């Protein structure tokens, strides 16, 4: 019986550790070079540094992604509910032209950057990207306040933004 209890305790501690939320971006993510809408290169670190002192909602998306497009009305509602936050859209589009067309077509309002190597690339792996859309929240100090939700109306996302106001 003691062995069973010990094994259950060990399993629980392993599970809770694996579900622990990341609070900082990995070096690989910060060094990842992205593209601006002006077609200039910028590292993710430089992007994050621009918004220090602000609450930032990161929306990882792509113009080819049906779930991302379906979720855009929820993002717009979130922007209305929390207008003081900065909305940072990181695109997983395969090329610059498709990305720019997607921003215009879906009227995506916010700050926009394009990853250099898609979902399975350096940035995607460093944030454990397994689905898009993917939402994250960065607090005013640059720390990750919410690492992962996949719905813009997820209660965890809304509660995190309320707590950071």
TrEMBL record:
Q: Where is the Thioredoxin domain?
A: 23-165
For this protein, the record's Pfam families field holds: Thioredoxin_8 (PF13905)
**Top-level taxon:** Bacteria
The signal peptide annotation in the UniProt record is 1-20
Work out whether the entry's keyword set contains Secreted: no
The answer, when asked if Signal is one of the entry's keywords, is yes
Per UniProt, the keywords (alphabetical) are: Signal
Its name, as the record gives it, is TlpA family protein disulfide reductase
Organism listed in the record: Flavobacterium jejuense
Taxonomy-wise, where does this protein's organism fall, top ranks first? Answer: Bacteria, Pseudomonadati, Bacteroidota, Flavobacteriia, Flavobacteriales
């Amino acid at each position: 019986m003691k062995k069973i209890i010990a094994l259950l305790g060990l399993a629980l501690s392993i599970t809770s550790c694996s579900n622990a939320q990341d609070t900082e971006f990995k070096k690989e993510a910060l060094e990842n070079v992205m593209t601006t809408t002006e077609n200039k290169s910028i590292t993710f670190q430089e992007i994050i540094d621009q918004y220090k002192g602000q609450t930032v909602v990161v929306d990882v998306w792509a113009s080819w992604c049906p779930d991302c497009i379906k979720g855009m009305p929820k993002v717009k509602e979130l922007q209305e509910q929390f207008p003081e936050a900065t909305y940072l859209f990181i695109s997983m589009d395969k090329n610059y032209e498709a990305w720019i067309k997607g921003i215009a077509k879906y009227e995506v309002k916010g700050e926009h950057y394009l990853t250099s190597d898609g979902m399975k690339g350096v940035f995607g792996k460093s944030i454990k990207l397994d689905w898009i859309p993917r939402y994250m929240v960065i607090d005013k100090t640059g720390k990750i306040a919410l690492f992962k939700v996949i719905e813009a109306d997820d209660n965890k996302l809304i509660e995190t933004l309320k707590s950071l106001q």
